[in-house]
């Protein structure tokens, strides 16, 4: 098949533009945004067990922005690796908005590169099911996001089986970081 000529407008018309490509792949859009801002992102995961980090590094060139991920599935690791306050864990358990925020803040320092904290921290904690955890029903999820000196918790109530809840959490975490980066721009 012959190559289209350089000025072949029909070939260019069929190619998706950057906005369409970003809409089709929110993760690619997030990595592009992080790269354009020269920001790094560090990930702390509990219920997603590495899925969020894997999704981020699926994108070619992600190494410029993704410092790494910590899977702190065991509650003790949330304290020892991420600095989550033991009193919060003792009172509320691991499935709590404050835990998500503290994980997101803590992972930025835990995965510092050459002494420089990650610009963005994102964390997932929740009950994927099939059983309740810490008194929280399956599908109860909290995403923590830390950017600059601010931190937010995004509460979710998801439906579906264990794998579905985990996959939805990854998608929602990507979206939350994108939205909070956009909000950070507006302020």
Automatic annotation (TrEMBL):
Residues 28-181 form the CinA C-terminal domain. InterPro entries: CinA-like_C, CinA_C. It holds the Pfam family CinA. Residues 1-22 are annotated as: Disordered. It comes from the Bacteria. This is CinA family protein.
